[in-house]
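Researcher: I need the complex structure. Ligand is zinc ion. Inputs:
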Amino acid sequence: SWEDPTGVIATPPIHRHAREERDVNTTVLGYPRIGAARELKQAVEKYWSGSTDAADLEATARQLRADTWRDLAGLDVIPGNTFSYYDQMLDHVELFSAVPERFRGLGLSGLDTYFAMARGRDGVVPLELTKWFDTNYHYLVPELDKSTVFRLNPAKLVTELAEARDLGVALRPVLIGPLTFLLLSKSPDCEPLSLLDQLVDVYAELLGQLDVDWVQFDEPALVQDRTPAELDALRRTYDKLAALTDRPRLLVATYFGDPGPALPVLASTGVDGLALDLVSAPGMVPRIAALPSLQRKTVVAGVVDGRNVWRTPLGDALSTCATLLGSVGRLEVSTSCSLLHVPYDVEVEDELDPRVRERLAFARQKVDEVVLLGRALSSAEGVDVDLTTPAGGPVKESDLAREQAVRERVAAIHPEDRQRASYDERREAQQSLGLPLLTTTTIGSFPQTADLRRTRADLRAGRIDEATYDERMRAEIADVIRLQENLGLDVLVHGEPERNDMVQYFAERLDGYATTRLGWVQSYGSRCVRPPILYGEVSRPTAMTVPWTSYAQSLTIRPVKGMLTGPVTMLAWSFVRDDQPLQVTADQVALALRDEVADLAEAGIRIIQVDEPALRELLPLREADRKAYLDWSVGAFRLATGGAPASVQVHTHLCYSEFGAVITGIDGLDADVTTIEAARSRMEVLADLASAGFRRGVGPGVYDIHSPRVPSAEEMTALIRSALATTPAEQLWINPDCGLKTRSYAEVEPALRNLATATQQVRATL
Ligand code: GLN
Ligand code: ZN
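Model: Output:
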C-alpha cells in the first residue's frame, strides 16, 4: 500500500503488460487477504471493539484488495472475490441469504449480522467453526434446513468487481461450488444436498448478472470419497450451468487431492475448464492427458504448491506442463490451490538463515514462479528460465556428522522401540503414585497473563536478560503450583508460562526447524498463526523442558506432569520438508521427544503428557489412505513415549470429541491416560470409547474452557455422574477440556474450585 505525497490515499490504475495472446496463460486460484502486515486483523479487531466505524473498515478492505491485485498484476488471469472480512464460506451464506433465523431478528446492519454469525452475540451462539479439509484454515459451517430459501444477494461480489474494473483489472470471480457448499453445510432436518436444485438456480441467476470472462467454482469436496448419487448430482449441476445461454466461461477447481471418479464426470460436462492439483496428485497427469473430452477444454495445471513454502522445482513443473500441452485444449499454469495457506513474502524474513531462505517461496514468490513458468512455456518468447532452483530438501548444516547420526538413528529403529510394557504391568508399577479415584488434573497451560507476554517481549527486545526472565518464570511457576495445591488438585502442572505456542516453543529448540518473523497465515477470522518451518534433519541439541518441570516438582510432593508436544502435532502445525515421507520426519521428531521423555524420567518426573491435538487433523481425506496414516502417526507417538519406564505414567491430550475414524488410533497410542474434549458433547464420547473396548485411563473434559462461563459444581457433578454410567471410576479422570492459557484467572480459579468440589462430592458417594 502506498500514499501520495499529499497524504491522501490514492489508488492508481494497476499497470499490466499488454495482454498478448499466449499459448499458455498464468493464474493462481486465490490469495491471502489478511494483509502483509495483518492490516485486516487490526482493522476488524478495532471495529469489533467499537473504536472505528464501518467506513474505516471498508477503506482498509478496499486498500487490501487493490494491494492484492497489484501483487497479482503479472498474471494473465487474476482471481476475484478472494477477499473476505472473515471467511469465504460465511461470504456465501450472505451471498445466498442463508442467514439463520436467530441472527436475522437482531436488528443489526448487514456487516454486523455477518460478524454475529462468525462470533455470536449475547446469548446467540455463532455458527460452528470447523477445519477446511486437511488444512489449518477453519471455516464457518452454514446452517440450513428444509425450509431454507436461497435468495441472491451479490452486493459484496459486485462491488469488488466494480472496484477492480475502475483500476483496470478484470477478475475471474471465485465461488465455492454448489456441491462443496452443501456438502460442508449442516442441516437438522434434511440432507443438505436435497437443496441442490434450488441453490443451482441461484448460481444460474448470478451467472446471468456477471459481466466477466470466466467464473471459478471451487469444488474441493470432490477429492473426498463421494457416492454415485453425489457424482450424479455433480453431473446434473454443471450440465445445467453449462447449458445457460449467454454466460461466462466456467472453470471448476478441485484441490488438496485427486478427484478420482469425479474427474471423468466433470470432464464430460459442458464446463469450459478444470483446475487440477498436480502437486498433491501428480499421478493424475496421464489420466488427464488421456481424456478426449479435455481436448476441447482449458486445463489449469496446479504445478506450484499453494500449501507449502518450498520453491518449485521448475524443471519438473515444466515437464509436467509439457506433457499436457499437446493433449488438452488450452493449458494454463497455476498454483495447486489458493495461496491463502502460505505467508505473503519471504523477502522480509531477514533473520532467516539464508540457506533456508533461498529454498523458500511464499505467496509473492509463488506468483513469480507461475509467471516464469508461463513465460517459459510460451513459444512466442524465447525466455531463458533458470531451472536450477534449490530443491525443498534439507539444508546442509555445518555439522554433517550430526545429520548423518540422525538418519542412522531413524534407520536403526526397532519395532520394540514403539512398545512399552503391558498395560497391566504399567498399572501395577504406577500404583506407587498413590492417586485417588477420580484423579483431578489440568491439561497443562495456566492463563497467559499480559504480564507474562510482556516479559517474553522484553526478553526478545533485550530489555531484560535471561536471568531476570528465568526468575520471573520461576515465580509464575511457584504461584501456579501453590494455586493448584490450594485448590486440592491431585496431579499438578507447571503451567507453561515460558511457552509462546506449544509448537513454536519446541521448534525454537530443535535443530532442523526455523521460525519466521512475519510468516503469518490466517487460521480463522482475525486469528493468524506463524507455522515454523521444518527444513532439515531434526534433532535435540539439549533438554527442552526439564529445568522448568524439575523446578515445579521441587516445590511440591504431589506429582507434576511433564508436558511435551507430540510428533504429529509438531508436523501438522508447521511447514514440513517435502522431499521425504512424512513418516520419516515424524520419527525424527519422535526420537528427539523420546530423549526428552528419558531426561524427564531421569529427573524424577513420574507423569509425562505428550499432546497430540492434531492427530485427527492430518487424517487423509480419503478412507483408503487412512490406515497407513494411522499406522505411522500412532507409530511416531509410540516411538516418542516407548522408552518411558513402566512406572512413568504417559498421558496424551486430544482436542476434540468426535473421534469417528480415529478411535482405533486413539487406542493404538497406548497412553496410560487420555484426556479429551467432552463438555460440549455431554460425555457421548465415553460411550464410543467403551464400545471400542478402551480400558485405560480417560479424562473427559468437564469444564468447557472455550467459553468464559464458569460452570457450577452441580453442573460438573452431573457430568461426572453421567461419565460414571459408561466408565468405571478406576478408569475415570477429572479435568478441563483443554489448556487454560486463553482464559483469565478470574474464570479459572472458581471453575477449578468447583471442579475439585464436584469431584469430592462424587467421591463421597462411591
Ligand atoms: N498442554 C497444552 C495446553 O494446555 C495443550 C493445548 C492443546 O491441546 N491445544 O495448553
Ligand atoms: Zn486441547
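Model: Summary of the prediction. The chain has 27 helices and 22 strands.
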